[in-house]
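Quick one from the shared queue. A colleague (R.T.) flagged Lrp/AsnC family transcriptional regulator as missing a structural entry in our internal table.

Convert sequence to structure tokens.
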Amino acid sequence: MLDTIDKSILKMLQNDAHITNREISLKLHLTTTPVHERIKRLEKDGYIKKYVALLDKEKLDKGLTVFCNVSLKQHTNENGKKLVKEIQSIPEVVECYNIAGDYDFMLKILVKDMPAYQKFVLGVLGTIKSIGSVKSVFVMGEIKSSTSVPF
């Protein structure tokens, strides 16, 4: 069970993974040793999965974000497993969710621009045999983006 100190540490790390144990300890009025021990425990217990750097999509020439809803051609376990395996190997697909409703999967795709997306749909998604239909939604502007988990 997380106590208020653990939650404070997690919130600080979500905001800035570069924050030092010393900076955390000063903010929480603790010494660095218990902060270090708590962080190691939070990592061991799986509350902290990994540390990453968030990159600028525009600067890396991936300025178009597309949400793509995908339906399977046939709803079989084999088709679903094939699609999941293929999607996991496509670098442009940065997130994939199995969803309920009119579609089976929702993909978040990053590409340079509309011509790049057209090439991606025809040359990559179009070659996946288990896909029955695709519906694309194009992001015109990002209003809120967060990697933080609210708690």
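The chain has a mean pLDDT of 97.
The chain has five helices and four strands.
Added to the table.
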